[in-house]
Specification:
Layout: H1 23-34, H2 43-55, H3 68-76, H4 79-82, E1 86-87, E2 93-94, H5 96-103, H6 107-117, H7 139-150, E3 152-154, H8 155-160, H9 171-187, H10 192-207, H11 209-214, H12 227-251, E4 255-258, E5 263-266, H13 271-280, H14 291-299, H15 311-321, H16 332-359, H17 364-375, H18 382-397, E6 401-404, E7 407-408, E8 414-416, E9 425-428, E10 432-438, H19 443-465, E11 468-475, H20 480-489, E12 503-507, H21 508-520, H22 527-543, H23 547-559
Amino acid sequence: MAGIDRHTRTLFFTTSPRTPMKMVPEIKLLAEEFSGVKWTRNSKLQKSFMLRLFEQEFFMSSKPPKDPAFSARDRITRAPKALGFVNLEPVVELTPAGHELVYGDMPSEALLRQLVKFQLPSPYHPLASGSDQDFFVRPYLEILRLVRHFGSLSFDELMLFGLQLTNYKRFDEIVDKIDAFRVRKAQNKGQYRKFIAIEKERVVREVYASEISSGDISTREAREKTLAKFVKTKTSTLRDYADACFRYLRATEVVSISQRGHSLSIAPDRVRDVDYLLDTMPREPRFIDREELYKDYLFDAETPKLLTDDPVKLTAKIHAINPTVEIDGLSVIELKSIEHGLRQKAKEAVLNETIAEIKDCKQYDDIQATFDGIVSSKYYDNPLVFEWNAWRAMTMIDGGNIIPNFNLDDNGEPISTAAGNTPDILCDYGDFSVLVEVTLQSGQKQYDNEGEPVARHLGKVKQDSGREAFCLFVAPKISKASVSFFYSLHHINIEHYGGKAVIVPMELAVYRKMLEDSYKVDYVPNANHIRAIFEKSKEVAAHAENENVWYEQIRDYALNWLDA
């Protein structure tokens, strides 16, 4: 793993994988099939791992990488190694922390422990020889501290100022910078786009003043050597690091993301957990140049101690949730199990309450408004919000059991999209199922990235359930390649896809019209109404002249699905 480049002036966070929990099945594959094998400078082994990874159902790519060994190193030597989930020296080994992430009951807790131990510098990330850089910090810990201090921290505040917190002793300085930024923002109310563009250039010029003054402004990504290109590249890099920080902290479930406000805040029911961590966790990096001691510390699955490791504080937390629980004489592990179970029950109660509101049409206006926001890309994570909102819409459209496969937090808010080997949404109608797959991609990329996986998901559901299943594929715009592929699957008996696959592509505008029709009628549409769409698709496909005729006819049918 490379050290801290001499040109690095801000915090950096792992961007591979973009969504942290997606590394879990990859780490599991590495540990179960490649443990005990030499990894370093073993391109043959790295290539073998990557090709095995490509074969897995959870791997979300339709094409193998051009350089499998490089791709393997990119996936394993970044987050899995840097966060202490795998040890690669002298051979591949799953660490105790990695075991808790992959096999433990609380992977979000395992991730939290490792994030707050991540430090700069470290034996994994040493400073460049002769460097004048000021790095002495636990980045995730200090960003959590910033969020707690302000109550909420916007994406732009983190990107421009939080990433400058390279030494924990600069905390007050960064707080002052954010306070000043908020004053300037208030003075430019109604002109945020212009204001933030000026702020980004000003900050980059300030942070990289020495490089700019010396003319050292070349970038790896571009041939041209201009100040404008340098500022643009550095701004893009800061954006990527801020996004990675948001996503990794979100996966710990101790923070919430405001999708509309693009900001982080401490989850209301996890404030005490965060305060305990901030009060007890040392801020100084440890074992900076002593690799074996650092690895022992990093790999430990029980450090740092969390609030849920303190029996007194854990007992208080349990009683705050449910004062009637009997916990006398129980071990910490048993107390943790109770606390986890209570949180799960509370999460289920929140979800059930949400479902009841949706089925009573109380969220109709918000669902439609959210679709408007998705189309205009106003949310922090538009793909995630799209999955969540499509689930809400499907829950309201009919009386089926609509199961989301994306992850939800304790408050019923979405955390991350569905895993690569599962459909986004699964609708149970008793004697048949419907998968709902959504994407914001368009054009050829839509077909390349979504076509085959969607058909594969459908085949797997058919095989696992032993009953008939169909699929609704929703996107703001359906590509011609997707229409052609899904039309062809109506006619071809492919065992891997469970026989002939009935997948109906539907533009978001049509899906929203279905929701509107469901809202207007004085009854709840049932399984027969849903099934009729797919039966009509099979009927039309059998006689249509081509895929375009089929697509137009099934679209027209869906636009009037309750009048048919």
